[in-house]
């Protein structure tokens, strides 16, 4: 029946003419705009990540390398040149020593290779004189005079001025702390008498007191004030604070201090003493992140290593024709020796290379996880587009169009958006400073994004694909099992291949590493989809016995729709696994570096070389704050069996002051083992006793081992096995970390090693315990940057742990994984919304029925939320479990000990705070998604109350 529309009344005003109908093509174009915009954004993002990933990896490597070089050169220059020079040649005119040394500095600077020009710079020129003696109100003082080109400038002086380069008198300047300790005053005259430097007599005038540690070097900018001052003080800590001798010291001195002098004072005292002094030139390699990125990969590191190896030879050739011996060179009018050089930078590069290989693996895994989440989001977008257009496509099929033709039409429709996204992504990748993006990776990703929608369209329209959804396809269960088995085999093969060959060292993504996160995520999702519906069904049955329909309907639908939630579940699992893995690695590395630093120190402080420097070791034990001290010694031995003559194998024989260690560190495993075996405090092993009782690895109780020392046979009696925890005892770290790693270890009390002399000891250490050590006094006795290796090495746990906490490589890993996780979460939110929109009609139909039966709007939203909770919990469990097991699955590909050092690989433990934050974030993500999906559903009228005769 047709309804007649009455004509308008005569007095009714003229109405606006009806709008012209919008053409169908325009309406379809408007409907496609969200899809095209989404594809463009995803293409741009994924193209940027793929094309810029090599650049980003190089940039991250540059930051890590620059940080590592800066840390290595914090206490001393990276390259140090030195040359001895005699007094002025007889008959030659005396010159300005500063200018003469500066000419050598110019020669050294001109030899810098072009690739390092501007990065390898002169840091300082120093001449350190042997000690002279003087008297102050504080007592006898051993005074070391120093000329330093980077000495504090006038702005750093609290009182007085720097020594005058043109003054005839011997002028000195000391720090304010030295002034207070030695009770000096401005203008005071100090007698200079022979000490280690003989034949000198004179009077020094105190002309200034500078503030140590916040100094302004002459000619330095304000930004360099603290840096250069700190370097000088770290290398020569007695410039900042004098060291006090004990009253019973054999030297007869009460103090030892350092003072700054002008170059003319150096030549005056050298002429008096007729002594040979040594000048040192420090060169510092300061690489910014961009420059360091050029040397960060394998080829760049090899090039930098060759440059650093060749540069000292070139500088030596330019200085004196390449001579290596004799005093046939000249520094001004001074006869000088050939130039010697030393550097620690090649060792830094050698240590950095394997560590960055592992860091590259971690960052690449994060980038791969991000790419996988992005592609899954693209799949969700394509599926939604196919669902929206399936009626029109089926109509086209009914009119005779083939599935291939329809798919090609869809490809043509989306090509402009994908092309625009490709251009935007490549432009973004190329906009990075000094970037050379890998365009082929961006093109491959864009091609994959473009082909997804046509492929899914063809799959949905192919012959035999139009059967109703509620009719199960034949052998569907069998195909699912085959698909799951295939994914499982591929994942196992990928993990096995990754464990066997590791990652590629080439620039750019590793295809195998990119595939492993997706495969492992698919395996996890397959297991979850099989398992989590079972408890959900049980919970639904329990809910059916209670009042209310929201829980029972939501849980029943969640269990039934579990396979349909596989895509959203995969997105969440991969996102969570990547985030948990990144937090796990970053936290483990940070804790592992701190643990390794504490193990290498062994106590609150340790002094290596104590056996060769007994007097200095004794002075260290008397520093304020030192509560206990323990000696540790290690010898390299090659025992043989005393019964059958078989070799036991090269081993480390370690002696510890067992009783003292037990008192200083009650939780020490070594002290506990010695005490249990009755070896603590044992006096055997003296000069008349040739049998030493030991605890041993890989030996039986009662075995007799024989070693030879100084043409004497000594017997080692094994009285017990060595517990595994002893191998990780920090008390043994100072001697074991600096020598060759050996599988076999023998442990005894130090008192049993009386038959050995100091020259027999491979490594020795003095462990210092105390909660409040006087760090400044310790450093005044043993500088952190000791140029003389015979002095020994003092390590403080607080300093080593601080260095570990400021490691730039760990900061780079955190930054990279934080960025990858943030982008992955945003993509996961988009993918989850799209996946919910895919199932929105079914949920809307269910909500319509329930609202017709009286269910309210809030209850409907609660229904949607409860329906998603099982999937969210499954994703949380699966993603967390996968992230925690990834280090084990990757195996040799990820060797965390390369980062940390220490006696063993660091214990992997989860970041509980991060895991909890991810769980909360996932809940917020799902709640936000439900809110967005509910808002979209209301706008589209989904879930409205059904009217009589209406069907959805």
From TrEMBL:
Cleavable signal peptide: none
Residue segments, region Disordered: 1-21
Database matches in Pfam families: FtsX
ABC3 transporter permease C-terminal domain sequence ranges: 822-931
Coiled-coil ranges (or none): none
GO CC term, one of those recorded: plasma membrane
Topology with respect to the bilayer: Multi-pass membrane protein
Predominant location category: membrane
Ranges of Pro residues composition bias in the record: 1-10
Domain of life: Bacteria
GO MF annotations, alphabetized: transmembrane transporter activity
Membrane spanning residue stretches: 362-386, 407-429, 441-461, 481-500, 512-532, 566-586, 816-838, 868-892, 912-932
Cellular compartment(s): Cell membrane
Alphabetic keyword roster: Cell membrane, Membrane, Transmembrane, Transmembrane helix
Family designation: Belongs to the ABC-4 integral membrane protein family.
Protein name: ABC3 transporter permease C-terminal domain-containing protein
Species of origin: Streptomyces spongiae
